[in-house]
Backbone:
């Protein structure tokens, strides 16, 4: 070892070690990179639809009720307020992603997972949710309810 | 050796020459267990190991009928429970053994913590034990989703969302865990792979290390007993201690059978991504103290989202638990360490209190 350190010409071992180490590193990279990429799920084209026509008729929604609907791959919630107005929000709780529901006894929207409360404008009024629910625009066209993402 | 070999069968001698049975026998004969007033805690590790073996056996049996896809998982478990002879029993034993194993694992962990068995030279035994706890919790978390029922679906949604809360790498980790942006069939296949292949491999490695170290260092005698002059006597591991172990294992098996027969595991409703989260949604009991803590945190603490504070807090807590052998300098020096006894007791009380609240406070309040 001492001889090697003193003699710059005696670096054959050093070179071989470097060569071996580099090869091992390259080999590891060549294995880990594809495996790493493999584990990351590919992005699936999300439905970009900004508007959805609901399979619910306006007259089916009585005042003080709520109904979950599909908005692309995520759930939305349609609410008819006790005053009779139709409103729609994203049904994904802003706390930890659970699906919210309408509580007729409280007259507002509620998340069962961690007891989050939202009023009828989607504002977070109790429990852990940090943000209001995303609000959608509701249009009634004749016999159909059309919900669209904000203008 | 010659004298020892007298009276041995020819098969034994044949095997001894090839495998080295005599060395193994010496090892077994040499192993002793100290006897003192805390000896009873020595049985918990073996009990956890026994329940793990029950889980491996029943898990293999469940694999024969289970189908890991969002379309078929629920139905295959339903078929297993309703049609397959003793299917309900195998699944119930698997689920109960999992719960009991986590329970004995916690008891084992806390007895080691309070008896200060993590002190030098057993730090690595402690690390591998904490690793095994993490693996066991991973088993519980991934296994909970596999029947693809409503409770499991939302528990997984919340659980994976929690990783997404972590600053920086969170969203990436969440996507990696879910196999996409939402909890879907892709998550189910991923969790299945983790539950039946990745974690068993990890558990085998860590368990091998853990058991090897237990053999190498022998049982730890609590510092207080040591200061009082050490264990007054020692018991041979084979057969005295092992036979006592067996009594415990048989009792555990009886408890398991009774629980599985009288409280078979339910299946519930099939998961529906477009239904509201059911009232009374809850995780497995051993995650309850964390779940309940998240419920109590306000939405903002010092300008940071409450959930981030909670999740990072539990991460730091886990790290603290892992590093206790390095942090508890007094015990390492052989001095009494009231502080760490207090910390251990505080952790236990916190977990019990929050778990109790999780099951008693009305979920709709």
Residues:
């Amino acid at each position: 070892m001492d001889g090697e350190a003193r003699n710059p010409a005696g670096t054959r071992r050093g070179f071989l070690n470097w060569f071996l180490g580099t090869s091992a590193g390259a080999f590891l990279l060549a294995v880990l990179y594809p495996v790493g990429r493999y584990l990351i799920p590919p992005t699936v084209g999300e439905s970009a639809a900004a508007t959805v026509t609901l399979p619910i008729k306006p007259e089916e929604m009585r005042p003080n009720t709520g109904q979950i609907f599909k908005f692309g791959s995520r759930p939305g919630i349609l609410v008819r307020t006790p005053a009779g107005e139709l409103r729609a929000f994203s049904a994904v709780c802003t706390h930890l992603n659970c699906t919210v529901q309408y509580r007729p006894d409280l007259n507002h929207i509620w998340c069962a997972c961690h007891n989050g409360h939202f009023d009828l404008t989607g504002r977070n009024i109790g429990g852990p949710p940090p943000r209001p629910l995303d609000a959608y625009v509701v249009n009634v066209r004749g016999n159909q309810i059309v919900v669209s993402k904000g203008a | 050796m010659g004298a020892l070999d007298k009276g041995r069968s020819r098969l034994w001698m044949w095997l001894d020459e090839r495998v080295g049975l005599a060395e193994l026998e010496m090892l077994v004969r040499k192993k002793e267990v100290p006897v003192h007033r805390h000896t009873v805690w020595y049985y918990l590790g073996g009990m956890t190991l026994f329940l793990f073996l029950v889980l491996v056996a029943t898990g293999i049996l469940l694999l024969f009928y289970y189908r890991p896809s969002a379309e078929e998982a629920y139905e295959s478990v339903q078929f297993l429970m309703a049609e397959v002879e003793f299917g309900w029993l195998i699944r119930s034993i698997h689920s109960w053994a999992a719960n009991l194993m986590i329970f004995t694992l916690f008891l084992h962990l806390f007895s080691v913590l309070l008896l200060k068995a993590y002190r030098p030279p057993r730090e690595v035994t402690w690390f591998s034990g904490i690793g095994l706890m993490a693996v066991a919790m991973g088993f519980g978390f991934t296994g909970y989703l596999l029947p693809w029922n409503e409770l499991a679906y939302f528990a997984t949604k919340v659980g994976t969302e929690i990783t997404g809360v972590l600053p920086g790498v969170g969203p990436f980790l969440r996507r990696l865990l879910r196999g996409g942006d939402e909890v879907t069939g892709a998550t189910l296949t991923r969790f299945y792979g983790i539950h039946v292949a990745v974690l068993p491999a990890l558990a085998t490695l860590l368990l091998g290390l853990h058991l090897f170290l237990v053999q190498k260092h022998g049982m730890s005698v609590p510092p207080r007993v040591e200061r009082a002059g050490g264990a007054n006597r020692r018991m041979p591991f084979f057969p005295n201690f092992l036979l006592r172990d067996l009594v415990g294992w048989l009792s555990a098996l009886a408890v398991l059978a009774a629980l599985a027969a009288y409280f078979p595991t339910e299946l519930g409703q099939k998961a529906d991504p477009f239904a509201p989260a059911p009232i009374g949604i809850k995780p497995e009991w051993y995650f309850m103290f964390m779940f309940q803590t998240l419920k109590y945190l306000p939405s903002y603490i010092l300008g940071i989202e409450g959930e981030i504070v909670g999740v990072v807090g539990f991460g730091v807590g886990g790290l603290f638990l892992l590093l206790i052998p390095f942090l508890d300098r007094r015990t390492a020096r052989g001095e009494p360490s009231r502080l760490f006894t207090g910390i251990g007791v505080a952790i236990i009380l916190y977990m019990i209190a929050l778990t109790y609240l999780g099951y008693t406070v009305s979920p709709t309040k």
Summary: The first strand of chain B starts at residue 32 and ends at 35. Residues 28-281 of chain B form a domain with the Cytochrome Bc1 Complex; Chain C fold (CATH 1.20.810.10).
